[in-house]
Fold this protein.
Amino acid sequence: MYPDLNSRSAKLYERGRLVMPGGNSRVGVMFEPYPLYAASGSGCRVIDVDGTERIDFVNNWSSLIHGHGNPAVLAALAEQSQKLLAVGMPTEVEIELAELLCDRVPGIEQIRFSNSGSEGVLMALRAARAFTGRAKIAKVEGAYHGNADSIEVSVAPSPKSFGSPTAPASVAATEGLTESVLRDTIVLPFNDVDATRELIVSHSADLAAVVIDPVVSRMGFVEATPEYLRMIREVTLELGIVLIFDEVFSFRTGYRGVQGRYGITPDLTALGKVIGGGLPVGATGGSAEIMSVFDQTIKPLRVEHGGTYNANPMTMAAGLASMIQMTPDAYARLDALGERARSGLRDAIADAGLPGKVYGCASMVSLIFSNEPFSNYRELPLRRREAEMVYMLHRYLLNHGVQIIPHGMLILSTAMTEADIDFMVDRARDGMREIATTFTSGSSS
């Protein structure tokens, strides 16, 4: 049972803390009192170092759209590994993956690869600044776009630092950001059409780009309204501001990405996660006109984009094998599993007599133990009680064969079946009943 301080995971955590601050290299994998260490995975299941098997609803924060050990991806990696692991030359498989993505994504005429979604966003911002000659960027309050300085702003601000609801303050999400970064990052109130339009217009002379993920992961996959997205597209076109869609998460929403789903085409798109087949990947794509800033054959070069592992052949081979399998039918099946999970969890909440709502779209699911509606960061129910309830559910599921993201988020894979979804829902229902008993008895504040 978790936690067990005599477990191998607990001991590995203590060992890791001696050589790595926090015991590992990713803040997102940590939960109290220690994270579980993985040993192996197959299909939709992952086994930890203590031999416990769980259905994996984390899927490496969305990168494993086919789960663990997908046969086609493994075959592509095996074949490629006998040719080249890495090389200081371009390869044909890089072109093949680029062709697939340019063919599918409406806003991508040309593309360049990097090694993380953060890099994909970073290079999109740099391209926008080079193309427009402007310095500032705008992003949504409560949205996370990776670890580039410009967008590590107002990711999870506290109410004490909010600022005006129509003109949110620019709040550093981490130490190490300079005041000039905060001055050059404009924060937009999500889904507030009028206030966002006014902010974009008022800063338009200095604004290089607006970056937005239409399905905001840090807000439990809450979607931008069609009216909000249409307004941003219209005003950025009118004012010559580059519109960037961060589809690192939301590209899994459909065959042509979230932009195909909404019918709104951005100027640049940042990609990552699912396009790498489980290996590190990022990408920046967009119109040929803007992407020309990266063209090293045009002198002088406007934006240098290097990287030892950019478009490395192993990632390109895995990504191509992964994306070829993501046909429209595969997306439809995965979306149906997502809806089955959302519907089942709604029923489970009701059966347990708990307050709560289930959010998300396509193969992304989130739940929160509150009936308060929200459509932006400031409306999120972030009180201690809701947090304790979802953490209790996370721990219950860990001890009953299911692993979810600790904050109540679930990400599906094509390796899952209806039976896997139903197993998760049944265990969640049991856990919610236990939560209801605990909180009704008043044993938790």
About this structure: The first helix runs from residue 8 to 19. The chain has a mean pLDDT of 96. The radius of gyration is 22 Å.
